[in-house]
């Protein structure tokens, strides 16, 4: 079989999947859980609990704050300590609900058994019912960006979904949470995929996995054949060549079905694909079949100098320092703490930041690994142009942002940048290309928004 | 000989035709420009700083002439030239000019290296905008001066600099023309244009931290904790406290300095008042102590 990948650009950073074979452990319950109200793209959630309220595991504590928004559920049982502010992954103090943990009492509606529920045993699950349950469970994209899932499942009438692509690429170095999830919950993921296909009324599904996870490819191919063989659904496990940023939606669509998503505001469904993370598929299974809202996730805690890096099933709201403690504590000396992996992760200034819906990894790099090298003048080698997966010219966009030539930057499609950092990674002169481009992109998007608002 | 003659005739004819066409075009498509615009433009400083709200001095001159025709120059003022230049412009246009109160840019942050300890190291692009987008910065205060000098770069008059000792921006009052370029450049909206005040005396809250007192105190010793003591003591109702941060209205403040005395964190700053012992202007905080 030909190993597919996306057409242009891409890099292959050192993998460092230290926790590849470490079985998932259940993370210890925190003493205090912190739930930021903005864990997703869109309007922040609105708290519906007050100080002193008793909550159980799975109690809704905040409602969706708009159409593009998601409710938040408590992952612990206990008493609401306060509705205050707390530092989240943005680095700023944002509104949050803080709960003191007492015991571990679950909402009775949640089915805690291990029994695998199959879609054929549940004829009551119409597409609308599945989407409603996904929406009510507060599921957002588990890959990191955190876009509310129910919106992706209801594409605009101008486009037609043809297939569901499960993103099990995990191209980011260090992270292994999705891999462990696949190895440990393959059956549930396949039912989740079936639910997603039913909800979007398509019968073709793909699971894109990079070839550095041969066991997962083998396992899922085998299971998919037995589960979907002889049904109306056709599901194909697509092995993909290791290349970063294959986990980007547009790159994955290109790699799996060889279709190119046009420049923003186009989204993958404009070319017929609905992309969902493998973690999302699992969360959809749990939400629809087990009535379990989204309050737990798989997270990798990793770093070369960490004593026992591992994969954890974490209750959301657990401060990262608890997880680091469970891995043997913060290594001595200067460290860089990241929510996410080394390529796309967000550097944090506090280990009190809680694990949220999109926290796929807590990565700790040593200062030596993390520190940037002194930038040198651009030597026009065009390596950045070669690796850009969106076909942009990073050196030019960076320069245009630096000299604040926003009109030209817009013409050069700065808004298409997916901020993958391949350009900066590959630059032999260590230039801060992405820092400049990100500035320019934010400014240009602001200008476009203002212009559209005036019309 | 013949060649020369041909060349002269051909080129001469082309030149003549072109001249006629150009003359006709310049007559037909002539745009009338008020000669006063050029004269006014001559008087303006020519820095094109945009402080008046127009794209440059040309735009301002145009607006001034249009304003004259409309009968009023209200709201038009050149912050760079000040009363002097505006007076001359008014003379030229035969108008009376309402002079605005002179203003000056004020950096509202006390977060010096001593007051605001570093908690992290930022390795990315050293501009305030980039650092602001990444998070709170190198200190625990998510509101204070980042010290990368976006304002310094924006200033056309060399009136603002980042003090290497304190790590925060400070304004040279002599050079500042209150064009507001730094206000726009600051991603955290710390810089404010305030009334310069008599003899340059003014009182302001040198902090914009909106966190609760306990949190902001931890981040910076001289932060406003929103305790409202200043609000209560102010006899003129010039102080309002909202979002855990106090603000002194420069138009209502009568410079009594009662708030300065009462502020528990010394976040309120009074500048250019006579002090018992001479101090360097850069150590404003100590001046009140």
Give structural notes.
The complex is a heterodimer of chains A (455) and B (289). Chain A has 455 residues and is an alpha/beta fold. Helices cover 29% and strands 19% of the residues of chain A. In chain A, helix 4 (186-199) packs across helix 7 and helix 11 packs across helix 14. The mean pLDDT of chain A is 93. With 289 residues, chain B is α+β, with helices and mostly antiparallel strands. Chain B has eleven helices and eight strands. In chain B, the strands form four sheets. Chain B has a two-stranded antiparallel sheet with strand order 1-4. Chain B has a two-stranded antiparallel ribbon with strand order 2-3. In chain B, helix 2 (35-43) packs across helix 3 (57-70) and helix 2 (35-43) runs antiparallel to helix 4. The longest helix of chain B is centred in the N-terminal third of the chain and has 27 residues, at 2-28. The mean pLDDT of chain B is 87. Chain A binds chain B through residues 84-85, 87, 90-93, 334, 346-350, 370-372, 432, 435-436, 438-439, 442, and chain B through 119-121, 123-125, 127, 129-130, 133-137, 140, 142, 211-212, 215.
SSE ordering of chain B? HHHHEHHEEHEEHHEEHEH
Quaternary structure type: heterodimer
| CATH level 1 class label of the domain at 119-289 in chain A | Alpha Beta
CATH level-3 fold name of the domain at 119-289 in chain A: Rossmann fold
Largest interface: A-B, 22 and 19 residues
User: What structural category do the secondary elements of chain B indicate?
Assistant: alpha+beta
Q: What average pLDDT do the residues of chain B reach? A: 87
Tell me the radius of gyration of chain A.
22 Å
What is the third-level CATH name, the topology of the largest domain in chain B? Answer: Alpha-Beta Plaits
The separation of the N and C termini of chain A measures 51 Å
Number of helices of chain A: 14
Low-confidence stretches of chain A: none
Number of helical elements of chain B: 11
Shape of chain A: globular
What's the count of strands of chain A? 17
DSSP helix fraction of chain A: 25-40%
Percentage of residues assigned to helices of chain B? 25-40%
């Amino acid at each position: 079989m030909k190993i597919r990948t996306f057409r242009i650009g891409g890099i292959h950073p050192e993998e460092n999947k230290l926790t590849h074979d470490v079985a998932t452990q259940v993370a210890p319950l925190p003493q205090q859980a912190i739930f930021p109200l903005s864990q997703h793209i869109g309007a922040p959630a609105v708290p519906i609990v007050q100080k002193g309220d008793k909550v159980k595991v799975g109690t809704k504590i905040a409602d969706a704050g708009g159409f593009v928004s998601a409710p938040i559920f408590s992952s612990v049982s206990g008493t609401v300590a306060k509705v205050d502010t707390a530092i989240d992954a943005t680095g700023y103090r944002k509104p949050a609900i803080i709960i003191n943990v007492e015991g571990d009492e679950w909402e009775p509606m949640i089915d805690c058994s291990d029994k695998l529920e199959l879609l054929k045993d549940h004829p009551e699950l119409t597409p609308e019912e599945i989407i409603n349950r996904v929406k009510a469970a507060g599921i957002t994209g588990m890959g990191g960006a955190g876009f509310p899932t129910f919106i992706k499942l209801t594409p605009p009438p101008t486009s037609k979904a043809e297939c569901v692509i499960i993103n099990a690429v995990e191209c980011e170095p260090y992270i292994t949470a999705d891999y462990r999830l696949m190895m440990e919950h393959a059956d549930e993921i396949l039912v989740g995929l079936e639910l997603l296909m039913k909800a979007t009324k398509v019968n073709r599904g793909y699971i894109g996995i990079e070839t550095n996870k041969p066991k997962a490819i083998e396992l899922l191919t085998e299971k998919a054949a037995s589960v979907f063989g002889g049904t109306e659904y056709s599901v194909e496990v697509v092995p993909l060549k290791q290349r970063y940023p294959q986990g980007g939606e547009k790159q994955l669509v290109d790699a799996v079905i060889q279709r190119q998503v046009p420049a923003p505001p186009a989204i993958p469904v404009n070319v017929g694909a609905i992309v969902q993370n493998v973690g999302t598929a699992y969360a959809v299974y749990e939400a629809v079949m087990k009535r379990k809202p989204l309050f737990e996730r798989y997270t990798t805690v990793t770093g070369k100098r960490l004593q026992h890096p591992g994969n954890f099933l974490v209750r959301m709201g657990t401060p990262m320092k608890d997880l680091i403690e469970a891995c043997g504590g913060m290594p001595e000396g200067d460290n860089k703490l990241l929510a996410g992996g080394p390529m796309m992760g967000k550097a944090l200034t506090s280990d009190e930041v809680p694990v949220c819906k999109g926290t796929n990894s807590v990565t700790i790099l040593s200062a030596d690994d993390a520190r940037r090298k002194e930038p040198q003048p651009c030597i026009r080698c065009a390596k950045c142009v070669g690796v850009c997966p969106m076909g942009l010219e990073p050196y030019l966009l960076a320069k245009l942002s630096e000299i604040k030539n926003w009109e030209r930057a817009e013409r050069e499609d700065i808004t298409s940048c997916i901020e993958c950092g391949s350009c900066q990674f590959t630059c032999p002169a260590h230039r801060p290309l992405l820092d400049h481009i990100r500035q320019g992109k934010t400014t240009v998007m602001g200008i476009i928004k203002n212009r559209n608002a005036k019309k | 000989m013949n060649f020369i003659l041909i060349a002269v005739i051909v080129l001469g004819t082309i030149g003549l035709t072109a001249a006629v066409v150009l003359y006709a075009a310049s007559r037909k498509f002539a745009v009338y420009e008020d000669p006063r615009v050029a004269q006014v433009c001559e008087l303006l400083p020519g820095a094109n700083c945009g402080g008046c709200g127009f794209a440059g001095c040309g735009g301002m001159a145009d607006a001034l002439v249009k304003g004259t025709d409309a009968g009023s120059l209200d709201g038009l003022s050149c912050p760079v030239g000040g009363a002097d230049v505006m007076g001359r412009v008014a003379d030229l246009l035969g108008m009376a000019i309402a002079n605005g109160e002179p203003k000056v840019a004020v950096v509202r942050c006390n977060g010096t290296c001593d007051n605001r300890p570093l908690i992290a190291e930022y390795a990315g692009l050293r501009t305030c905008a980039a650092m602001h987008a990444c998070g709170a910065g190198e200190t625990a205060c998510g509101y204070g001066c980042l010290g990368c000098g976006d304002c310094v770069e924006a200033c056309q008059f060399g009136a603002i600099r980042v003090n290497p000792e304190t790590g925060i921006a400070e304004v040279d009052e002599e050079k500042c023309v209150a064009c507001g370029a730094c206000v726009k450049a600051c991603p955290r909206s710390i810089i404010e244009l305030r009334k310069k005040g008599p003899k340059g005396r003014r009182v302001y809250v040198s902090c914009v931290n909106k966190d609760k007192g306990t949190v902001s105190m931890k981040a910076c010793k001289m932060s406003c904790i929103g305790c409202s003591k200043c609000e209560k003591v102010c006899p003129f109702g010039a102080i309002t406290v909202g979002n855990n941060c106090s603000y002194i209205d420069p138009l209502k403040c009568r410079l009594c300095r009662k708030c300065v005395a009462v502020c528990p964190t010394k976040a309120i700053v009074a500048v250019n008042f006579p002090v018992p012992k001479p101090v360097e202007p850069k150590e404003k905080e100590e001046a009140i102590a």
